[in-house]
Amino acid sequence: MKKILNNPEAYVDEMLEGLTAAHPDVYRIVGEDRRAVARGTPGPEGKVGIVSGGGSGHLPVFTGYVGTGLLDACAIGDVFASPTADQMADSIRAADRGAGVLRLYGNYGGDVMNFDMAGDIVEMDEIETTTVLLADDVASAPPAEAEKRRGVAGMVYAFKIAGAAAEAGLDLSEVTRVAQKTADAVRSVGAALSSCTVPQAGKPTFEIGVDEMEMGMGIHGEPGVWRDKLRPADAIAEEMMDRLLSDVEIGKGDRVSILVNSLGATPHEELYILYRIVSKRLSDVGAEIVMPLVGRYATSMEMTGVSFTLLKLDAELEGYLTAPCHCAFWTVS
Amino acid sequence: MKKILNNPEAYVDEMLEGLTAAHPDVYRIVGEDRRAVARGTPGPEGKVGIVSGGGSGHLPVFTGYVGTGLLDACAIGDVFASPTADQMADSIRAADRGAGVLRLYGNYGGDVMNFDMAGDIVEMDEIETTTVLLADDVASAPPAEAEKRRGVAGMVYAFKIAGAAAEAGLDLSEVTRVAQKTADAVRSVGAALSSCTVPQAGKPTFEIGVDEMEMGMGIHGEPGVWRDKLRPADAIAEEMMDRLLSDVEIGKGDRVSILVNSLGATPHEELYILYRIVSKRLSDVGAEIVMPLVGRYATSMEMTGVSFTLLKLDAELEGYLTAPCHCAFWTVS
């Protein structure tokens, strides 16, 4: 196991200790069992709060996106494991500035169950909550069953846009509307070349041949749509763009953003090789790319692979996408 | 080879094509054979230019740091191979705004030879040049032979600080003085757990056992100071801090910055586990940490491993370190 760690059981707690030691201005640990993170300085009184949460091992997702113009707090589970309802309730309480809290997270069974329970818990504190789920992975279910899709890197756009809307002073129903519009407008697809290792498991999550790849694989190793020999970069990018563009209508004059995301080990060099095709395909349909993101925005530790996330914009979404934000992983100024 | 590419021979050119397609506001390809990159919009007339250069495969180093408050241009070789003198001359010409150009790069034989020749070439264009070499890797030679040391991630600090000094309007001799002061104040050490694969070679640069690590290994696989079983994170961090703190005097009241850098595959989670010890060790000697950097600032594609870079600050260096900058990989606002 080529990982730099101490006790695998302490992986997440030590990570949080280091994260908050490095960036005390941005992050602060809260909650009885120290498994929620809030903004170093809370947002202003009367601002709508936004929380997310989920398993660890995906930095910057989820915790890393706590910051100005982004999330107000986040609940953190063990690697690839849901936080508890109590941890999620801790994050909601930390995010509350008297104007209600949006729960904004990915469509995974355990997270949904626990965030629902957390909403019930904080009702006793008279905190109003709403929910928007990300279900952007087009490879995980067909369009007719879109509600079954997994949430993956699309949440990066949702955090950014909803975060900017809350920062601009919109109320809870309006921030929720903007977040839902983003969730509806975003599509992702991934391809994996190798697994990562969950520290407590001590061995790779899945096996894959040294010359193989899997199209459509999920970020925890969920099965994809095919496994075959590793293909050239351009063929991979073309197929991924085919899958995105067949799931959402993008045409002449549309404005879009695209995230070309490393799942961990795949270097920036290779993301940019893929970007050539991404850019060409969007140009071919007459779309204009706004603020493309290329890098490690949603990972599975040291997994080798990439995901593409396509967001169809309107003027409102574009305004919030390009607004300033700041966390330890992402600054837009 | 778990790499996403097309023709290995085209790896660098396709990477540059994607980089400039994604960020045309930041980067622009220049030079006859398109192997130099300059700022999307040149710096103001009369600003000192700063260039760097070296082999590809280290993004964001070197090319990624072309931007506002950073480098003005950069020459790019093949993966782990020096650019030619002509490519370096192209970068110098692109960086020249009439006030001379600082060559700021790492201490590798091929780069030094070619940048010296490039300086001779641009003398005919009447461009004045100066040189500052980074030689920050303490594992590569003892203090008595410090001039033989390799340049590694310390150049990130040098680009940032010299870039801010040039942006502030200092003249060539002053920018050169500030860059040299940074080079003198910075120390790095790395540890590798696995190799990367140079595309044109098609196999890992070096072999290392599945349970082994190498302390002090260079970013191209240059031999380190020991190879042994993989140690716990805290032991690795303690030894790396020992090596840095025995090479430069840091004491009570000193202000420092520290970069905890992934060589590629090592995830953010593990960098933050290491940061706990980094922070404790600096606190133990009474030093205060300013603007710590944790992430992928200087990589070897998908190599697994980390490096620490420690910079001893004074008021001048701290002012330039914390000044605004912008490129596709790093925004300080």
From TrEMBL, chains A, B:
Keywords: ATP-binding, Kinase, Nucleotide-binding, Transferase. One of its GO terms (cellular component) is cytosol. One of its GO terms (biological process) is glycerol catabolic process. It holds the Pfam family Dak1. Residues 7-330 form the DhaK domain. One of its GO terms (molecular function) is ATP binding. The keyword Transferase applies. This is Dihydroxyacetone kinase DhaK subunit. It comes from Jannaschia faecimaris.
